[in-house]
Amino acid sequence: MPIITRSYITAAVVTTIGCSLEIISPHILYLHPKLVVKQYQIWRLITNFLYFRNMDLDFLFHMFFLSRYCKLLEENSFRGRTADFFYMLLFGATVLTTTVLVGGMIPYLSVSFANIFFLSYSLTFMMVYVWCKQNPLIHMSFFGIITFTAAYLPWVLLSLSVVLGGSLWVDLLGMIAGHAYYFLEDVYPKMTKPHHLSKTCLLNNLW
Description:
This protein is mainly alpha-helical. It has one domain (55-206). The protein is 65% helix and 4% strand. It has helices at 3-20, 33-38, 44-47, 57-77, 82-103, 110-114, 120-134, 153-163, 168-191, 199-206, and strands at residues 139-142, 146-149. Strands 1-2 form a two-stranded antiparallel sheet. Strand 1 (139-142) and strand 2 (146-149) form a beta hairpin. Helix 5 (82-103) crosses helix 7, helix 5 (82-103) crosses helix 9 (168-191) and helix 8 packs antiparallel against helix 9 (168-191). The radius of gyration is 18 Å and the shape is globular.
C-alpha cells in the first residue's frame, strides 16, 4: 500500500479505535470554527478528517472504499507523483472546510451544516468521485445485482446513503470538492489549450 494511503488509513483507524476505547475524546477532534480561531486549536482542521465515528459495519464499509480508491488513485493516476496526491487531499480538505464554514452562515443551510462536525466521510467520497471521473467507462457491479459504469458510482452511493438514513450533505460535499478538483486538474487545462474544440466537446468534458 503506497505511503499516503497507508498513512491516512493508519491515522484514521488509530483515531477511531482510540475514541471507541475512550482513550481519545471526539470533543477535542471535531471541527469548531470558534475554537480554531479564538483559542488556536488548529489541530481540529486535521483531526476532523480522521474520525469515522463508531466501529461498526458503516466504519468497515468506508474503510474499504478509502483503502480501495485512495490506493487506486495513488498507484495509477498519481504514480510517481506522491506530492501531487498529497496536494489533492489538501485541496479537498480545504474546499470541504471552507464550504462548511460558508454554508453555516447561509440561511436555510446553516441548520444542516451546523450538524456536520467531521468531514472524514466527505473526503473519502471525494476520492471515489475523482477516481470515477477519471475512469468513467469501467464496469462495476452493485452486490452482483445491478451493473453500471463507474461514472454512475457516486450517484449510486449517494442514493444508498439516503435510503439508509445518512446525511445527504455529507456525500454532496464530497462530490463538490471532487468535481472542483477534477475540473481544475483535468478539464480546465484542456479548455485553455490553443487547439480548436467545439462547444459540445467542452460541455462534455465539463460534465
